[in-house]
Amino acid sequence: MSDLFLTNARLIDPEAGTETFGAIKISEGKIAEILTQDIEKAIKNFPAGKVADCGGQYLAPGIVDIGVKIGEPGERHKESFRTAGAAAAAGGITTMITRPDTTPALDTPEALEFVARRANEAAPVHILPMAALTKGREGREMVEIGFLHDAGAVAFTDCDRVVESPKVFSRCLTYARSLGALVMAHPQDPGLSKGAAVTSGKFASLKGLPAVSPMAERMGLERDLALVEMTGARYHADCISTAGALPALQRAKDAGLDVTAGVSIHHLTLNEFDVGDYRSFFKVKPPLRSEDDRFATVAAVASGLIDVISSFHTPQDEESKRLPYEEAASGAVALETLLPAALRLVHAGAIDLPTLWRALSLNPARRLGLDAGRLAVGAPADLVLFDPNTPFVLDRFKLRSKSKNTPFDEQRMQGKVLKTFVGGIEVFGA
């Protein structure tokens, strides 16, 4: 690892909540010094070939993205560690937290070790795997949480499959608590949600699509929080997308429960009407909500009630998306669109850059116990240099992901990643 001096940058510090003009000195893969004064003097004492001028653009901690789907093993034709790693680096993501909804599910130490080995071989960014909470993600029998925790699982989740049995889920929470392990869940009532393609309302009725009430999310979250209160476990709700769920989340936090929540970038920037004439690239899980729900979740991110913004990168091939809307697979790719989509919130005046980076980087790193997401001496030099104002029209066929199922295709966006550094090494440069 070589030394590097990044100068003439606007530094986004999510811990301090500040945006300052300065420079960063990197040594042995870590941030060695942060300078806001006497920068020119420091540059003179540094080898010329190791100084990089950031051109007055913005330098921030690399994004820590929780809940990335990668198709290895089982669906490598949709996404591989190599393609996902390249897309993440191009999107300013320096750490991906991957989901266990593979084929087969990541529910054994051997499967987890395979994924970790493949990831380290193929990807230029950090990849940390989550493990399934129940065997086969079937909601019947708890996995060997202790062995999987020792093998490197950073959290446990059955992803979008809700553990329907309160008894099974409470046992999982109790055992996870004994190890200090984090359980991540998808708060939805499975009975109400089954077969739904959109959010209930006038739009769903006009389109004749099977719908689910937003109440299903509140009901699922209320159940989970009651079990968390009973067991004292560490819990993260992966995607809160409705206004109705927010009071329950606030009460849980006020009561001192070890609870955090996330939201997907699609639910912060799109609404139910974007489905339009059955556009299946807009089919995600949970379904896109009303504009009132979108405003409420944006406000919750700004206030800190919702802790984390994630891409929920879910690659699907053309065959699974080019179907009637209710039959099409759910999910969208988002590794390269996460940052420009999130910057829509900044350009709209709904949130500032340090607050945005708190949700994109600092909070997810803290929740997982990672020494990342910070601009601080001694922190890993995982950084992203970006221009928040560069406009462009997205062409999905230029995305580095194998699958191209993005709802932002042909949309005008703003914000471009210029460079991404992992451990002080440049892994992407525009």
Automatic annotation (TrEMBL):
Keywords of the record: Hydrolase, Pyrimidine biosynthesis
Keyword Coiled coil on entry: no
Keyword set includes Hydrolase: yes
Enzyme class: hydrolase
GO MF annotation, one: dihydroorotase activity
Dihydroorotase catalytic domain residues: 56-242
Segment forming the signal sequence: none
Alphabetical list of PANTHER family matching this protein: ALLANTOINASE
Annotated protein name in UniProt: Dihydroorotase
Species in which this protein is naturally found: Pseudohalocynthiibacter aestuariivivens
Lineage: Bacteria, Pseudomonadati, Pseudomonadota, Alphaproteobacteria, Rhodobacterales
